[in-house]
User: What shape does this take?
Amino acid sequence: MVQTPMTRERLFALREEIARLEGNCAAAARQEALAGESGHARKRENHRLPLGVPALDHALEGGLPLNGMSEIRSQLMRDATAATGFALALAVLIQQQPEADHAPVLWISDTVTSMETGIPYALGLADFGLKPERFLHAAPRRLEEALWLAETAVESGAFSASILEVKGNSAHFGLTESRRLGLRAKAAGRPLLLLRQSGEEEASSAPFRFLVEPAPAKSRLLPDRSVLGGSIGNPVFRLTLEKSRNPAPVSLYLEWNPHDRQFFPAHEPERAWPAGRLSAHSGSRLPASANRPGRPQELGSVLALDQAS
Assistant: This one.
């Protein structure tokens, strides 16, 4: 079929009009998609988990951020159980969120840290308020493998929370690795808890850092309404928010109730002894046996004598 010049001009005009309409539709679709992504990003950025303690939530600017990395540390290895308990309590609260969608918690600890602190115990997790069937534990052999696994876990979005447990201040885990982990968690919109056992303060990309120390349990109320002190009760933490936007650190005592799965503010214990002065036997010391020698006397000053020729 032979096309006249007029027909060809009309055909070209129709093609240009179609292209213009398709371009406008595509541009509108792109703008809508970008607007939706920015809305979701703003929603994730403002999404925080209130801990139920007004003083702490105010210091956290609304609660624990659920779209990035937060750091928890203990000063000494003997305080590792307190830092671990606080991290597990946060994992319990995160799993209760509707957006968690029954996703499991992933606990990552390298071999060296597991040898010092042990591995999670299913019955203990259940008593603490966490569901063992929604808990996974990974023990990479090297710290580099643990870092790679943490990055992969937050990027996958398959876990409600990821916990990376490391020991001390390793040369293989500095500010560069911390910044990369924080960016991966923020881009994925997932919470990542960095649990540093027996570590010192150092530069970190985490907006919040908690120092967790053990504290005496509160007095327990018995069925007859009497109060029993000095017994085993709900765990209590001495929590110090040492890194935040506040000019001064915030320090307070928190009690974790595993039955209610909730934090409660606790009062400072009336009689708190330094950790080094605590005795393994709180009772009075018995006298030495009559027919046996007593305890060996403490040595006095030791002098270095000149060697005889």
In short: The first helix runs from residue 5 to 45. Confidence is low (pLDDT under 50) at residues 37-44. The longest strand covers residues 236-243.
